[in-house]
């Protein structure tokens, strides 16, 4: 297998109106709000936390660091991984400096770096729960402790902060953490022959390797991946040694999950399909893709391919959400995609974006970019409200306030976004994805620049190459490129043709041109000083169906235009929404409403609505001819649902 070098470009400025709004929202609303929450200064309620984690409005995440640093007294509050809320927030702030310099915020983040450095132990260890309340149990219960997961999230943040600001202390904290981990883990005598129950450190060490070029960190990432599952009883042995009583568990109930849940039942090279906790799976996959790219490990790459194919072709919702069940926030089995009990954790969609990006760095394959786009415009983005202060942990494809309130099996499904969560992994995770979206638009492999996301931007590459992309995507499919190549560098420019656009038109310097589609991309040889490209994608509204192997969607249709999946909401349509029927060839009408939901494309589709039975009618009765009326059903983008009144929502509609 070919070993690839690090793909790099100099700078990307996002000019897309759609994404500029979200990125500015992160700076002006999301980061200040989350900072207040983590400092216990915000007036919030977490009573609607779908997992019922936490009993009051405290986060205490910053206070935990202050206690570990000796600036406060007290006990640790929250989960063992509470520190990661701060680290992901710091990472998002670091990315924001690249497009919105903010001296006031930088004072806060510089001070936070100083606090983290002060909290770190002399040997580089940093996980405040164990430092404050259980120092004798460090690395003793890795199934549940999240210690390497926690330090991995700081390493990611430290690398991002160093890259953004040049703050050496931020990077030094990260390298000291990694050195501490390296001194404790491995197959040498006296070291721990194990790994964390929650993958994350593998991808973090890969990012640290990229900036330091220290081979030790890549070797350590490779060790964690190849050691996983070598001794399936490793976690059990640790629990027994640490004290087998359930009172010793760090997170109640975590020992009850099978080894497959932790992807530890067998070595990765032998695992046929992804199983268990969805976020663990995609973080592991991201680490595998990273390490496979730098080491040439064919077994890891083969595992990436197996896991990708199973997730995307058999266990992914049309919105990109993954993880079907609330029990363990986990995958279930192929083609099991229930809509009204779907879990679809926001973090899992963010993690799937990470995975897709790393696969693009290995291969120029349009499928990876299609999934990345699906997450960006649907599955991940739905996790945050339009005001930046309310969040979804769970992202269903069908919701009903009565069901969420009255059926315990659906209580995890919210029909309005919450202020915060006791387990608050999702809000800052989404913030760091949005703030870094400029890093997801291009991939450079050898002599080829791939433009695989239609997010308007101005990009600068080596050799003086500049690429300008303008559009009104995702509402319009007209994509305009201007490429300036002042040094007459010779390179290929690849443009993705999305799977949702079977037809397209391309012109080069005003002349129509036909190019073959190769694995989802068209390629143009650039060797002159400038070139202008115009791409016209098929933005017709499409009525979609699922594979007939998906029981939950049998006899149903969904609506998609471009990359955007649509949903019916009670805010626009008379309830109940299950009474509507849509024909496969139903007439549709599209218009852009700049005043609705901060500007969205709206689809109206011809439908039939069955007359609702009287409340006094029999519960069961003989089938008779249906009494229906013709109506128009109004649909809005899935990501924008639940920003108005509380009510029902459906993505999949009954087929007429």
From TrEMBL:
One of its GO terms (biological process) is carbohydrate metabolic process. Pfam families: Beta-AFase-like_GH127_cat, Glyco_hydro127C, Glyco_hydro127M. InterPro entries: 6-hairpin_glycosidase_sf (IPR008928), 6hp_glycosidase-like_sf (IPR012341), Beta-AFase-like (IPR049174), Beta-AFase-like_GH127_C (IPR049049), Beta-AFase-like_GH127_cat (IPR012878), Beta-AFase-like_GH127_middle (IPR049046). Residues 11-438 form the Non-reducing end beta-L-arabinofuranosidase-like GH127 catalytic domain. Residues 448-535 form the Non-reducing end beta-L-arabinofuranosidase-like GH127 middle domain. Residues 542-654 form the Non-reducing end beta-L-arabinofuranosidase-like GH127 C-terminal domain. This is Glycoside hydrolase family 127 protein.
């Amino acid at each position: 297998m070919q070993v690839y070098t690090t793909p790099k470009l100099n700078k990307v400025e996002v000019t897309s109106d759609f994404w500029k709004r979200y990125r500015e929202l992160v700076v002006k609303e999301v980061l200040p709000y989350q900072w207040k929450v983590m400092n216990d200064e915000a007036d919030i309620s977490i009573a609607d936390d779908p997992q019922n984690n936490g009993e009051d409005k405290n986060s205490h995440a910053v206070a935990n660091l202050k206690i570990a640093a000796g600036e406060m007294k007290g006990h640790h509050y929250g989960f063992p991984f509470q520190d990661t809320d701060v680290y992901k927030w710091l990472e998002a702030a670091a990315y924001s400096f690249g497009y919105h310099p903010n001296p006031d915020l930088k004072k806060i983040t510089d001070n936070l770096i100083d606090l983290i450095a002060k909290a770190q132990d002399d040997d580089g260890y940093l996980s405040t729960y164990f430092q404050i309340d259980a120092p004798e149990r460090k690395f003793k219960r890795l199934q549940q402790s999240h210690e390497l997961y926690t330090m991995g999230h700081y390493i990611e943040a430290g690398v991002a902060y160093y890259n953004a600001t040049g703050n050496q202390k931020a990077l030094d904290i990260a390298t000291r953490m990694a050195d501490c981990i390296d001194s404790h883990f491995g197959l040498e005598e006296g070291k721990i022959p194990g790994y964390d129950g929650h993958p994350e450190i593998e991808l973090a060490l890969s990012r640290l390797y990229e900036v330091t070029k220290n081979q030790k960190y890549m070797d350590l990432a490779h060790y964690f991946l190849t050691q996983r599952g070598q001794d399936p009883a490793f976690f059990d042995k640790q629990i027994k040694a640490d004290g087998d009583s359930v009172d010793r568990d760090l997170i109640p109930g975590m020992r009850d999950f099978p080894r497959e849940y932790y992807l530890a039942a067998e070595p990765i090279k032998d695992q046929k399909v992804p199983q268990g906790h969805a976020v663990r799976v995609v973080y592991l996959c991201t680490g595998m893709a990273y390490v496979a790219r730098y080491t040439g490990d064919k077994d890891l790459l083969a595992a990436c391919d197996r896991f990708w194919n199973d997730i995307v072709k058999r266990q992914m919702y049309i919105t990109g959400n993954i993880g079907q069940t609330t029990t363990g926030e986990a995958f279930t089995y192929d083609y099991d995609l229930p809509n009204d009990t779907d879990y679809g954790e926001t973090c899992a969609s963010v993690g799937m974006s990470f995975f897709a990006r790393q696969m693009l760095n290995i291969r120029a394959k349009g499928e990876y970019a299609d999934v990345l786009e699906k997450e960006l415009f649907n599955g991940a983005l739905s996790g945050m409200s339009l005001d930046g202060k309310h969040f979804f942990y769970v992202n269903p494809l069908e919701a009903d306030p009565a069901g969420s309130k009255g059926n315990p099996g659906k209580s995890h499904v919210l029909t309005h976004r919450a202020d915060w969560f006791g387990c608050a992994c999702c809000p800052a995770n989404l913030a760091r994805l949005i703030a870094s979206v400029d890093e997801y638009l291009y991939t450079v492999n050898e002599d080829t620049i791939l433009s695989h996301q239609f997010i308007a931007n101005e990009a600068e590459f080596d050799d003086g190459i500049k690429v300008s992309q303008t559009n009104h995507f995702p509402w319009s499919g007209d994509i305009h490129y201007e490429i300036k190549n002042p040094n007459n560098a010779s390179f290929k420019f690849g443009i993705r043709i999305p799977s949702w656009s079977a037809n397209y038109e391309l012109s080069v310097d005003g002349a129509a041109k036909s190019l073959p589609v190769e694995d989802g991309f068209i390629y143009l040889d650039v060797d002159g000083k400038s070139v202008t490209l115009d791409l016209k994608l098929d933005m017709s509204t499409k009525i979609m169906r699922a594979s007939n192997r998906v029981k939950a969607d049998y006899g149903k249709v969904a609506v998609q235009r471009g990359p955007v999946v649509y949903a019916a909401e009670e805010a626009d349509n008379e309830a109940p929404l299950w009474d509507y029927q849509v024909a496969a060839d139903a007439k549709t009408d599209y218009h852009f409403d700049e005043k609705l939901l901060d500007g969205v494309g709206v689809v109206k589709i011809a439908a039939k609505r069955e007359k609702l039975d009287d409340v006094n009618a029999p519960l069961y009765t003989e089938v008779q001819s249906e009494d229906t009326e013709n109506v128009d059903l109004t649909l809005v983008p899935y990501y924008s649902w639940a920003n108005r009144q509380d009510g029902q929502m459906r993505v999949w509609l009954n087929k007429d």
